[in-house]
Every structure is written in C-alpha cells, then in structure tokens.
Write a structure and sequence with these properties.
With 390 residues, the chain is α/β, with parallel strands linked by helices. It folds into two domains: 16-257, Type I PLP-dependent aspartate aminotransferase-like (Major domain) (Aspartate Aminotransferase, domain 2, 3-Layer(aba) Sandwich), CATH 3.40.640; 262-389, Aspartate Aminotransferase, domain 1, CATH 3.90.1150. The chain contains 13 helices and twelve strands. Mean pLDDT is 94; it is low at 1-8. It binds pyridoxal-5'-phosphate (PLP).
Amino acid sequence: MSEQRSRVDASSWQGFGTKAIHAGYEPDPLTGAVNVPIYASSTFAQDGVGGMRGGFEYARTGNPTRQALEGNLAAIEGGSYGRGFASGMAATDALLRATLRPGDHLVIPNDAYGGTFRLIDKVFTQWGITYSVAAVSDVDAVRAAITPATKLVWVETPTNPLLNIGDIEALAGVAHEAGTKLVVDNTFASPYLQQPLRLGADVVLHSTTKYLGGHSDVVGGALVTDDEQLDADLAFLQNGAGAVPGPFDAYLTMRGIKTLAVRMDRHSDNAEKIVDYLQSHPKIESVLYPGLETHPNHAVAAKQMKRFGGMISVLVAGGAPAAQEFCAKTEIFTLAESLGGIESLIEHPAAMTHASTAGSLLEVPPHLVRLSVGIEDIDDLLGDVENALG
Ligand SMILES: *Cc1c(COP(=O)(O)O)cnc(C)c1O
C-alpha cells in the first residue's frame, strides 16, 4: 500500500469544538489511551511480505499519529481528505507541484504571504510557471488576471499583513467559470472562524504553525480538499517528496487544535478591545481590522467569518522609524515573526516577514506594524500598547 486515506465521517457531530476534540482518533482499543500515542516508529512489521497489520509500512508514507491529525484536519475544515506537511511552505510547494505544469499560470494576491510569493517568484518561475497578481478584494481584477493558461487562483483571506478580505464564494464562482481551481490559505482565520470549502473553494491550505498549533512550539502545514484525485496527487507527493510532519509534530498540532475554539474567541475578544484603543490614538494613522465597520470589505468579512480573529495591522504616524520604535518598546508583545500563538507578538513586516517583497508589486508600507494578539489578560495588553506608544 502506498497511500493512506484519511477519510472521516464526522458529519453527525454538529459542533466545531466537539469535532476539534474528537475527530480523527478513538481511544486506543488496547490501552484505552484517550490521546493519540506518538508513534515514534519509522517502519512497521509485516506478517509475510505485503502483510501489513494496521495499513502502515514506512512512516514517510503514513504514520498513525499523522493519520489521526489528518482525519482531524479534514473534519474541522468540513472536508473529506486532510494531509499534513512539515510546514506551511511544504504544503504550498506540494499543492503547486500537484496542480501546475510548465506553461501553466496562476493568480496570486497582491499582498500574499511573503514566503508564498518568494517560492512562486524564485522557484516555480524557473520551471516555466507564470503568475499575475490581483487584489483579492477585487473580484473583477481577479477575473481579469485569469488567462487560458490559468490552473489555480490563490487567495488568502484575511491577507497577511494588510488584512484585506476576498469574497470566497464570488472568487470560487470566478475560478470555476474559467475552469480553474480556487485555493484559500485559511491560516489567518482558522476553520473556527471561516470554512472555505463550504463556500466553494477546492482546497484549503494552512500553516498549522499559527492558530491550529497555537502555542508557538511546532512548525507544520496542511491541505484539505473534497477532490479525491487532488488528494491522491498530494498523497503521492507526501510519499514521493517526503515533506511530512514527524509524529511528535503531528501530536503537538493535534493537541493545539483541541482548544482552537476557545482560543479563537479569546483572541477575537482581546483584538477587538485593542482595536478600539488604537483607533483613537494620535500616533496611529489607521487601523486595519476586518471587524471594523470602516474596513472596506467589512460586509464580506461579516458574511463569511464567524468573528474577525486576533490579527491587527496599523499604519504608524512618523514612518518606518516610528513603526520600529513601537515594535521595540512593547514588553508583553514580543518582537518576533510568526503569529497565532497564545502569546502576543509584534513585528515590522517591511523589515521582517515581508522583507522579500521589497521592490516588487507586493511591497508593504514602511510604516506598517502587525500585531498578533494573544490570549493574555486584556488589561495587561492594553497597558503594554499604551506604554510603547508613549
Ligand atoms: C506562516 C504562513 C505561511 C507559511 O507557513 P510556515 O508554516 O511558516 O511554512 C503561509 N501562509 C500564511 C498566511 C502564513 O502566515
């Protein structure tokens, strides 16, 4: 057997929190262990040649801890098939290789995650792939960017770091009209806040490093789809290229997912209060948050998201030096890349996460600061922001 299936039927469970805690694993029949064991085994004994006991032969192809995570991922995104990868970028790489051939074209957001842009621009273009950029919030611009060679429309919503919103249902319509697939990078929202497959997307991508893992202690990626052929192609690449998560990584990610629902509510509560504070601060030019009624795509966000999440971006008055000073002065908000963990982080995208976009169409404003609001006590977080802004 070369590819494991991770099909789950969690459709009888209504609640997201219930699926997040239970899907993908049942207490071990032998020991009763309520959590999936970390199967630290690279190979599995066979009873006679080809006689696998539990469907496993070699851990690049499949491992029971990873399989439990993959079933869970499928369930929480409301999809049929889930695949785990060693990082969000490994998932991105596998999806691009599964869907594109030399001569093909894809459409990407004009403010895509810097690493996604870098991989496409620096690596995939070398193999004859071309791309166009369009604002995800502008459905007509995305439609206009599609060519007869387009095989994939790549969307992030909310985008990183500008928190623009794409209308997933409308974009799925545009992609399907043109005979292409829509992928949604759902890293910023998490499946608790937004489920792109239900809105017509063909595949959902996650950096599980962020909200799904949720504790800044593991790097991982995921792809979820209802498309059986695409899933088989992804499984082939998991085994054929090998960018899979190890069993401890899979375990940590699954452990994180169990509390996703309560964490996302707290992230959203805290972010809303910090947005309120920042909006009236004289040193802040503008606050970018899809929950604000003044956000240009607020109506779309309200239609497709349960709440608006823990990510906030701000434009700081006084340019890049003022932005860097704000980042340097917070104490609870740690100056670091990444996002989505229980602890609050702050960063300067132009010099950090999005430095690779300098001079390109995806360049970010120099006075932009991105905050990943954690789940600490709100009064401490507000005090920290207040002190840092002076
Ligand atoms: C972090 C991130 C990625 C890349 O994921 P890694 O796990 O760091 O490889 C992709 N997309 C978005 C939106 C991200 O924030």
